[in-house]
């Protein structure tokens, strides 16, 4: 095989438009493909790649994306319904007016609110 077809990790990272560090971490997490074939040939401390290795890496990346999008969507978060800590003075006046059947108490509750407003 001609030497020009062998690539180093910097060349492969440039071909994939990623950083060398990203590619190193990806290779650490994915040392072999689905068939058990390594994505590169270790030569001492270096790694040698062939054009077919780059193709297999791209295919693995596509499969990973496909798996993420077809694994099922998360259900939308349900809206939380919270109760307030305490009923407001106005709502207490309104409740009293309903229980006593006296609509004048609602007006009294509104007046109380304007008189006792916090600064």
Total count of helical runs of at least 4 residues:
5
Beta-strand percent range: 5-15%
The number of E-state strands comes to 2
Q: First CA to last CA: what distance?
A: 84 Å
Note down, in words, how this protein is organized.
The protein is mainly α. About 50% of the residues lie in helices and about 5% in strands. The chain is built from 5 helices and 2 strands; from the N terminus they run H-H-E-E-H-H-H. It has helices at about 10-15, 20-30, 50-70, 90-100, 105-115; strands at about 40-45, 45-50. It has a two-stranded antiparallel sheet with strand order 1-2. Helix 1 (about 10-15) packs across helix 2 (about 20-30) and helix 4 (about 90-100) runs antiparallel to helix 5. The chain is rod-shaped, with a radius of gyration of 34 Å. The N and C termini lie far apart (about 85 Å).
């Amino acid at each position: 095989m001609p030497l020009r077809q062998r690539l180093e990790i910097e060349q492969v990272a440039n071909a994939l438009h990623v950083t060398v560090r990203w590619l190193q971490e990806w290779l650490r997490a994915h040392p072999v493909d689905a068939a058990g074939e390594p994505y590169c040939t270790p030569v001492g401390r270096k790694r040698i790649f062939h054009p077919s290795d780059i193709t297999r890496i791209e295919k693995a990346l596509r499969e990973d994306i496909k798996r993420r999008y077809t694994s099922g969507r998360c259900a939308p978060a349900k809206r939380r319904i919270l109760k307030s800590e305490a009923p407001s003075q106005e709502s207490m006046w309104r409740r009293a007016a309903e229980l006593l059947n006296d609509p004048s108490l609602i007006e009294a509750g509104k007046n109380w609110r304007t008189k006792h407003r916090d600064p």
